[in-house]
Amino acid sequence: MIRTILAASLLIAGLAAARAQTGDMSCADYLKADAQAQASMSAADKAMIAADPQAAAMDAKMRAYCKANPKASSSEAAMKAMQ
After folding, report:
1. Please, which of 20, 27, 37, 40 could form a disulfide with 66 given CB 3.0 to 4.6 Å?
2. Cα 82 vs. chain centroid, distance in angstroms?
3. How far is 83 from 81, CA to CA, in rounded Å?
4. Which region, left, alpha or beta, applies to residue 69 given φ > 0 means left and ψ of -120 to 50 means alpha?
């Protein structure tokens, strides 16, 4: 559980660092940053995040919203994913 939280925190921190450089990034940019973050994670870290149903659902909702609305902001996608 702690490793799951740590892995999710690292993923969020990486995406937040990318966002801090660009302001509120577009969904297209979010998807690119997410793909880079996923590529750099170990298989064990990916499995731990996928094992957390709440985190996995949030990720899936954000990706789905961003794929459907690439010009929307990532903060808008996050708000929609939390609804």
Report:
1. 27
2. 13
3. 6
4. beta
Distance CA 38, CA 49 (A): 11
| Cβ count within 10 A of residue 79 | 11
CA distance 50 to 83: 20
Q: What is the distance between the alpha carbons of residues 60 and 62, in angstroms, rounded to a whole number?
A: 6
pLDDT in tens, the chain (83 residues): 666 665 666 667 666 665 555 568 999 999 999 999 889 988 888 888 888 888 888 889 999 999 999 999 999 999 999 88
DSSP code of residue 73: B
Q: For residues 44 and 64, give the distance between their C-alpha atoms in angstroms, rounded to a whole number.
A: 24
